[in-house]
Amino acid sequence: MNKDVKVIRVKNLYKKFGDFTANDNLSFEVSKGEIFGFLGANGAGKTTAIKILCGLSYPSSGEISVAGFDVYKERELLKRNIGYMSQKFSLYEDLTVYENIRFYGGIYGMTKQEIDTKTNGLLDQLDLQHSRNKRISSLPLGWKQKLAFSVAIFHNPEIVFLDEPTGGVDPVTRRQFWDLIYEASRAGITIFVTTHYMDEAEYCDRVSIMVDGRVEALDTPTKLKEQFNALDMDQVFLSLARKAKNVE
Amino acid sequence: MRILKYLLQKEFLQIFRNKSMLPIIFVMPILQLCVLSFAATYDMKNTNLYIVDKDLSSHSRQLISKFSGSPFFTVKEIAFSVEEAEKELYKDEIDAILVFDKGFGEHLDLQANASIQVLVNAINASSAGLYNAYISSVIQDYNSIINTDMISVDGTTPMQLVQSTYLHQFNPEMKYIPYMLPGLLVLLVTVVGLFLSAMNVVREKEIGTIEQINVTPIKKSQFLIAKLIPFLVIGFFELAIGLCIAAFVFNIPFLGSVWLIFLVAFVYLIGILGFGLLISTQTNTQQQAMFIAWFFMVIFLLMSGLFTPVESMPEWGQKLNYFNPIAYFIKIIRMILLKGSGLMDILKDIAILGAFAIASVTIAVNRHRKVA
Known about the structure:
The structure holds 2 protein chains of 2 kinds. By secondary structure, chain A is an alpha/beta fold.
């Protein structure tokens, strides 16, 4: 992690839908290579914020830059330098493992040769070489999620945004998933991750907790536990989330 | 360019992997073309007649034999009661009743006016018109025979009969299939193109993969053009098959250039597919897209002159057709195939289709949203 280089800068971010304020004056910064946990109950405004950072949605106001690019003016440059993996599973079910990798590599402008070389390494690493020509629809969920993550960072982005990447996955596969995240982080990719699993929050370098569209706490897991006098992140989260009004 | 190649590769793979769509794309249009060309005919082959003959003279029998001898009529029953005949008409068992009153033959022999009453089932006005015309022509025919008969008997100056003769240009035998089939071809190419494109982008919205596309630097135009090209290829393929069927199964005349037809189809399909993609980008579910596509399809089609002549529509209806791409293409394809029209004859219509194509694709790209 390089604390001097900030890859995400958010200052006074507001997002309003009519009378409802989904993001209420968010301000934070994320350093290069950091694993940044973005926590909050359902309806706290996490997905809204992530979509703004990825250029999928316009903010109502605020100064936001991602990978050095302004979310208002330089969206396409921004998109070239990020990866994204959403709650909804986003590989093409009717294409094979290789065809999905080739497609996503190709649309980021990689050549056939680059794609093929990198695919081999990737399939070896994931131990998926045997499923190279199988359709995504025939793979178990855990494999799909790992593959989706690998595809999201296939073009070597500066930052990857993960929106509840481990939902519905068994603990062993979740552990393996986090191994992939650590590896990506060591390679210099910044990780911006939302999750509902508090054990995963412990794996993050820093954690922010959102309640009703506002960031109520932001620090390392160790410091947060001290601050809230809690044994684990679960207790930290509960003591904050109890204040929420917009719980689904 | 390289990015477009990868996008196209993915679209083609997905189309050919979709096992439920393939038969719809390739088999259904061919079946429809064959079935519709044979079935949706305006030629009358089988008019069911009920004859009430109260006269029983040689004249009435001669005229009846004219009807029973004609391939267009089936004489269901010859009886004496008009009431009975009407009952059959109510049951829809017969299409028309011919009534010979008593004295019909006698009147004819005396060269007075003899009349026949014709009652036609007119629920369907256009077929009623046809029954009427066919029946009249048989009676007319009989008229001329008895006229010459009588002339030959008394030898006086024959009555001058004015006869018009017709030459039907471009479709001399007034056949139905050469007229209908080119229009049906347009219909099939349009249905497949419009529906496939209208369902496509919205399907990615439903599955959620569009979000993954939207976080990439793909341009909107690249994304939509990659959607459009495969359907253009499919449309060409169907048109080729359809033209083969037209030529070899139905022996339709090919007076004009086939290449010209493909040129027009190229311009036309880009317009239709762009319109389908526009629908797709503006809807959130495949159901919505389906209904909107259907709505426009029905209006364009019924206004187009495929089933009813445009000339008999009210003024405003004819004006609406200035904005109806299907009407242009049907008109052009009939001109090329049946009249042998060349590029210069259809230049204005192609230009209009071109304007439609540019407009629909531009608007679709413009209205497509990568950002919510």
